[in-house]
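Predict the structure of HTTM domain-containing protein.
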Amino acid sequence: MSLTHRLRAHVHRALFEQNEPLTRLALMRIALGLVTVAYVVLEPYHRFLLDTRELLYSPSPLFAFVPPLDRTGLWVLEGATVVAGILFTLGYRTRAAAIAFSVLFAVWNYYVACFSRPTWVYNTHLNFFLWALCFCPAGARWSLDARRRSTAPGSELSERQLASFGMAFMQLYIAVLYFQAGLSKVLNSGFVWFILGQTPLIQTAQVGTEFGMQLTRVPELFTAFNLYAGVLEFGFLPATLLLGRVPRPMALMAILFHVGVGLTMKVSFWHLFLLYPALFLYQALPAKQPAPLTEPDARPATAA
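Done. Here is the predicted structure for HTTM domain-containing protein.
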């Protein structure tokens, strides 16, 4: 078998033959719906957006015609987003709910970003993942739709492949996100960023948690943390490309990384790493051989 053929087979397996893609996509739908709805409901934006709308609201020129929302307008936008998110999470009219949820959350998210640009930067993955699930059979498993639908013969194979591709897209998105974060550090500060540990040490000492400030007494911990971050950010993408999946240790490293950053530096990416069990950890379980999806030959056997 030639190298080109093996490479094509590897790419095809990574994109279209992931382990139990329909079940994992359903888990991802539920996790993404819960996280996104919680983000809209729990993040303290409602009072902030109302109190500062005349002072901080600054839309881009393309959307300058959109006025700052009053209390009623903001409640309607948030309420519609939450309702669409609940329907999406439950898997009721999943495709329509996914489209409505992705559009409403994008509008809400952009409106919040008109007050605080970093908000848009830190949660853009939620928009891309919601858009991706609009094109995938996200309601094929563990949904209200799945209880009342019948699968046409031969259609499950195409659904599996599409679900596998959707999962692969989201996994690669995270892998590229980490690589971009590491590359940005190198371009701005050089590889010395991962050796000295000064940036997280200073930030923790200035604005970190009480626990993190206690840790600043041991600067070597932050040097080790930076090396840990370098391994994660520059190892995630190669591991994904070479293995066709993210190995469980790398996924656990990512979760622990974000938990540690939140506990020490008050930088919380809960809306990112809470998606990882559905996106990565389930994938690392031993693969099960799917039942054949092609229709068996119904012709009776004939004697030789």
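The radius of gyration is 23 Å.
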